[in-house]
Amino acid sequence: MTFNPSGHEPEMPTNEPLLDAIVALASKTTPENVEQYYQALLNSQLYLAEDPDASPRPIMLVDDDGGIILPVFTDYRRLKTVFPDAVRYSATPAPELCRIALGNGIYSMNINPEQGPGGYLDRDEMEAIARNEIPDTSQREQSSWDNPNFIPMGDPNLPTDAELDAITTQASLWLRRLPG
Fold it and tell me: What pTM, to 2 d.p., does this model score?
């Protein structure tokens, strides 16, 4: 993995098939959508920002339990929006990136943090992707509002935040009118 020393915006793929697959899977979990998502992920190159204070290490996040999360992006624009101070970056095939992360004790990835559509990869998924395999999700807990695995934000076909707030407000008013 090498970082781009020039800092110029690359002319690399934006991983549109992966973005489409994330939105499809977030909208409806079907075996076909799961297959499409993992296949798109296996074929993608994900962007990683270099930590300007700890070169050549990537920028990493920490979850509430102190675990390391590797933020990765489907395109350069999303990376620069979240990490505008990142001077260098790398675009690496997802399987290779998973192998590198796992080899360094990183067991969680966040795809497109704050700039979805995005999602999370856990250790089991990363291990399968690192082997160029589609993860077996048959025994997994399904994604839900309380436990989301895919975040379809940023899709023009989804309601805006203002529309979601209006829907939530209307639903709350309706629920208050119910007897009991």
Answer: 0.72
